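Students often ask what a 'structure token' actually looks like in practice. Rather than answer in the abstract, let us consider tRNA (guanine-N(1)-)-methyltransferase, a protein of 246 residues. Its sequence is given first.
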Amino acid sequence: MIIDILTLFEDFYQSPLNSGVISMAKEMNAVDINIVNMREFGEGNYKKCDDYTYGGGPGMIMTYTIFKKYFESNSKGHTIIFSPSGKTLTQQKIKELSQKEHLTLILGHYEGIDYRVEKKYADEAISIGDYVLSGGEIPALLLVDAICRYKGVLNNSESVVNDTFEENANGLLEYEQYTRPFEIDNMKVPDVLISGNHKLIEEYRRERSIIKTFINRSDMFKNIDLTKKDIKTIFNYLIDKTNKIL
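Now compare that with the structural description of the same chain:
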């Protein structure tokens, strides 16, 4: 898989792309990541890449011209532009993108990019959440990292398919997990997890996922068919919480 990252700040990626799952995916030749310094396509002696906004407004806008020059001399993959107004990135979208042979990521900076770049070259606009960053470098890194997890770099393939937001997770947040030691700072691992009873462990983890989702992301329940037992789990949690308050 080829991933071209079009950025004004190529130095940003020196460390992140050479560590963790991204580095492993590169070593396995599962991904070929190219950092393109868009300043090379800038205008004049100073390689100008931005200009003032038509209609007035604060800040500078990255120009259409630099992207036009790039795409006229380079192959175009499935092209993504990162924008707060794009569709929110989901696990399903990441999985879909991981199956592409070639991705081109357009990274904005300053106050954004001339809209005509998106109109002409982008296949889709993606947002990573309801907040604003200084540029597209972090969203692109996030996407690349998430994609690399699908490239066979993890020791246990179940680490991917059972993660939160994967289809196998049944639309719930993942339950809490523990490792050794069994007890530390007056905190113990739940006894059920060392019982060896796989049915009870599975039921416990389901209950914890239900409660965790209820507390942190109750909006996710609209896409889940809750069982009577799931509803009882929530009911018991609320009763227990009420009793602690009283």
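One point worth highlighting: The CA atoms of residues 165 and 171 lie 6 Å apart. Ask yourself how you might have guessed this from the sequence alone, and why that guess would often be unreliable.
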